[in-house]
Design goal:
The chain has helices spanning 44-55, 57-63, 75-85, 106-110, 152-162, and strands at 14-16, 22-24, 32-37, 65-71, 90-93, 114-119, 122-127, 130-134, 140-144. With 171 residues, it is α/β, with parallel strands linked by helices.
Length: 171
Amino acid sequence: MPTIEPGRKAPDFTLNDQNEKPFRLAEHEDHAVVLFFYPKDCTSGCTREAQDFSAMAGDFRKAGAEVVGVSILDPASKKKFVTEAKLKLRMLADDHAGKDGKPDPKVAQKYGVWAEKSMYGRKFMGLVRTTYFVGPGRKVLARWDKVAVPDHAKKVLEAVREAGLDPIPSR
């Protein structure tokens, strides 16, 4: 499926987080959500990106958005990632597998971020690093494709601040 263009409604989904607690996007329609799709837990680039978002989680909430990460590994992998990287975010497991046992992530496909990739001449399916800024009512306000990690979280926070949303109350 193609990526979702800004102005369109983000598809609803339910995925388990690192604590096997379900996260349903439709239950967060009263505020904005930043969904950052990343390839793999506990890798250098993904750890850096998640730590950057985690360090600014309070700033995002003050600006009106909750941040959640999404990748294809299971909740146990997410729990290890959160613990090792000291993350203060919900990390969601899009860990559906096909009949052949290979990853078949349903949410990544809905959002157009599951695509053919190539490394060292080998082609494979993988998650393309992409971030969605989903506003109240699940309207996609912005999308960043093929994200370069340095300063990415800062750029997303700027966009959230510019949207002029109400802060999310502290938990």
